[in-house]
Specification:
Keywords: Phosphoprotein. This is Response regulator. This protein has one domain: Response regulator (Rossmann fold, 3-Layer(aba) Sandwich), CATH 3.40.50.2300. Helix content is about 50%, strand content about 15%. The chain has helices at about 5-20, 30-35, 60-65, 85-90, 105-125; strands spanning about 1-5, 25, 45-50, 75-80, 95-100. A five-stranded parallel β-sheet has the order 2-1-3-4-5, with helices on both faces. Helix 3 (about 60-65) runs parallel beside helix 4. The mean pLDDT is about 90.
Length: about 130
């Protein structure tokens, strides 16, 4: 799942994810994404969210997900990684932070790494 308030970027990211072989649901409104994720038939392996959004930020979105009882791994995508962001992400158990201006290849290498780790962990739990 990908959440970003920028509609053009969301459209482009959706195309990149599909081209990279991922099934992806995208949202421009984090509150709509929260409602969707709460549905009992929703299956998501990883939530990628932009950090800087007008109504909320990636940390607050991750906090709302946790408050709603969602344990799906969350990764924050941002163009500006700070030590404060890292600390907040660690405290919330955010799975990773992806640097946004990186190349699409670099970003997908990081996402592939995260998804691979999640799949290995899921297999070891089965």
């Amino acid at each position: 799942m990908y959440v970003d308030d920028d509609e053009v970027l969301t459209f482009l990211m959706e195309r990149l994810f599909v081209r990279a072989g991922y099934q992806i649901n995208t949202f421009n409104d984090p509150m709509v994404a929260l409602d969707w994720i709460a549905r009992p038939d929703t299956q998501v392996d990883l939530i990628l969210t932009d950090y800087n959004m007008p109504r909320t930020n990636g940390i607050e979105f991750a906090r709302a997900l946790r408050a709603a009882g969602t344990n799906i791994p969350v990764a924050i995508i941002t163009g500006h990684i700070t030590e404060v962001l890292r600390q907040q992400a660690d405290q919330l158990g955010v799975y990773g932070i992806v640097y946004k201006p990186d190349s699409a290849d670099g970003m997908f290498q990081e996402i592939d790494r995260m998804v691979g780790e999640l799949m290995l962990h899921a297999d070891s739990q089965a």
